[in-house]
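Let's practice the habit of predicting before peeking. Look at the sequence and jot down your guess about where helices and strands might fall. Then scroll down.
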Amino acid sequence: MRETDEQGLFWKWGHFIYRYRRAVFGVWCAIFIGMGVFAVQAPSMLKDNGFTPVGSDSDRGLKLMQEQLQIAPVMFDIVYESSNGESLLSEPKRAQIMDSLSELQQTSYVSSVSFRDVGRSEARNDVTVVTVTMNLEADEAIEKFASIRKLIPDPPDIKAYVTGSTAVFYDVQEASKRDIIKSEIIGLPIALIVLLLVFGTWLAGVLPLIVGMLSVTTTLGIIYFIALGTDSLSNFLPNMVSMLGLAVGIDYALFMVSRFREELNVQVDVGQAVAMTSQKAGKSIFFSGVAVLIGLIAMAFIDLALFQSLALGGVLVVSMSVIVGNTLLLALLGMLGERINRYAVIPKRWRSRKQDQNHDGSGNPFWGRVAYAVMKRPIPIVLLLCTVLIACVWPILNMNIGIPDAKMLPPKYESRYGSDLMAEVYDERELNPIQLIVKAEQPFHEELTIEAVAKLTETLKGVQSVQRVDSYLTALPNLPNTQAKSQALKNDQLQQQLKDSHLVNDSYMLVSVVSNVGADGEEAYDLVRNLRAIAPADLDILVTGTAAYRLDIVERITSALPYVVLFILAVTYVVLFIAFRSVILPLKAVFMNVLSLGASLGIVVLVFQHGYMADLLQVTSTGIVVAMLPVIIFCVVFGISMDYEVFLLSRIAEEYERTGDNERSTAEGLKKTGSIITSAAFILIVVVGAFIFTDNELMKAIGLGLSVSVLLDATLIRLFLVPALMKLMGRANWWAPRWAKSASSKDTVE
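Done guessing? Here is the structure:
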C-alpha cells in the first residue's frame, strides 16, 4: 500500500466529506443520541452464554429427556453453610431450611424442592444442598432470577448460596455489565493521558476517544435491535464490543489525527489536508480494518453461538470504527482545521524540539538509529528473537483445554462460592453422571425391551472407566426372570413412581452411567466416545450429560479449527499482497504475527493453567485453559496485531517507492511511525489490559493474550525483527510477478 500524493478514490472521498462536513457531523450526532438510548439496554437483552452445541447428540438427548421424561429444563442448587459450624443434617435443621423456602415453593414456576443426598461425602456436615427444579425455559429463569433470589432467605445462623447453571449465567450477565464500566474507568483516563502527551493539545487528544466511544455506542445500539429478533446472542458480546471498539477506534483515530497534523504543514488549505489524510491514513485504516475482519469472520466458521456472536459483534464494531474514522473524524478535522493545534497541554516554552518533530512528519531519529543498529547484525538478532519467541510458544504443547463453569467467575460471586462448597461435600462423578436417553421399539414394561435394556446395562458395565450403571431396572426387587419383571412393571403404582422419578415414559428410558473419572478431560471424553460406539440393533441411544456436552463443544471447535487457521492465513496473505504488490512482505508479516500470537498464547497458558503470576493478575488458575480461548485469541489478535505491521510497511513502501533504497526505506519508515505506533500500542494495551482486572475469567484471558501479543509486536517484532528481516531479504522484499506489478501500475494506490 504505497502512499503517494495522487488524487485517488480515498482523496475524492475525503474531499466529499470536507465539503459536507457539517451535515456529516449532524447526522452522526443524531445517530449517537438515538443509538445511545438502546446501547445501555443491550447487555440486558443477552441471556445466552453461547456454549450450547445446538443439534449435537448431547443437545438432542437433553431435549428428548425434557420432552419425553418431563425432566425440568431448569434447576439450581441452594448451598447452605452453617455460620457456627453446627451440623445441618439433623431433622430439625432440615425442617428449618425447608420452612424458609415456603414462599419459593408456592410460586407457580417451581416444580420441586428437595434435599440433594446422592453423592454426598462425609467431609462436612455443616453444609447441605437443596435442589430446586422449575418449569421455565433457561432465558425465562435468568430473567426472573433476581426475584427468585429474594425468595431464598438466610435461616438463623445459616448462610445460603445459590449456584448451578442458571445462577452462574445470571452472575456472568451481571459481571459483563459491571466489567464494561470498570474497564472503561481504568482504561480511558490512561488512554486520554497518553493521547494528550502524544499530541500535546486537548482537541487532538480527545478526538480519538470520541471515535472509540461512538463506535462502541453505535454497535451496541445495533446489537439491541438484532437481539430483539434472536435469543442466541452470547452475553459475552458486550465485553468484546467494548474491548475491540475502544482499542481499534482509538488507534485508527490516532493515526488519522497524526497524519492530518502532518498534512496541515504541507497542503495549501484545510480541505486539501483532509483529502490527503483520507488518501493516506484513511486507506491504511481501511486495509487494517479488513485485516482485523478476516480473523473475526473466521470465528463464525465454528458452529457455536459464542463464536458467531463474537464474530458478529467484532465485525460490526471494527467496521463501525473504520466508518466513523473515514466520515465523522474527517468531518471534525475539517471543522477544526488549524485549531486542532490550540489549547496546548504543555506550554510551548516547556516543550523540547523532539516533542514537536512528529507534527511535520520528519519522525523521531531515535527509531531510525535503532533500525540501522539492528540492520548491522541481522542474523544474530533474528536467531535470538526467534529462540525467545519459540520458548514462549513452548507451553502450548502441554496445554490442557476444558469448558468453563462457575470458575469463570471469582469466588466473591455466590454462584462460584456455592459451587466450590459443593465440590468439597459432593462427589463430582455422582453429581454429573453420563446420561443415555434410550428408545425401544416397545414400551418399557415389555419383555423384549427389558431384555434389551438389561443387555445394554451389562455392556455398559464392561466399558473402561464405568463405575456404576443405573436404570429403571435397578429400582426393581430381585426377581427371578424377565417375565416376572415385566409383570411387576405393569403395576400402575410402580409405573407412576418410575415416571415421577423421570426414568421411563412409554418406550423412552433413562440410563445413567457413573464413571470413575471426572466430567472434563480426555479420560471423560474417551468414555463418552466409547459409549457412543455402542449401538444395539433394537435400541436407539443418545448420550448426553455434562461430559458429553463438553465433548461436543470441544469437537465443534477442534473440527473447525484447521479451516479457521487456513482461512485467516490465506486471506490475510492475499489482502496484504494486493496492498503491497510483494510476495515476501506479506509472507514475513504472517510469519511474524504467528510467532507473536503463539508466544502470547503460551504466556496465557503459563498464567491460567500453571498459575504463574495468577495472584498478581487476580485470576483463578484451574489447571486448564478454556477451550474457546485459543480460537478467540488467534482470530482477534491476529488481525489486531497485523494493524501495526500494515502501518509500518505502508511507510516503508512509500519510502521505497520514492528512493528505491531498501535499507534507508526501512529506517525512514520506522523513524516516521515509531513514536505514533508505540503510542497506539500502549493505548491498546491499556484499553484491553484493563479487562485483566475485571471479573470474567474468559475476558481476563483475552485481555491478557491481546495485551501480551501487542506488547511483543510493538517491541521485539517491530523494533528488531522487522528491520533485521528487511535487511536480510534486501531487494527480494519488493519482488512480485510481472503481472502484479503491471496491475499495480494501473491502479491509483496510496
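How did you do? Confidence is low (pLDDT under 50) at residues 745-750.
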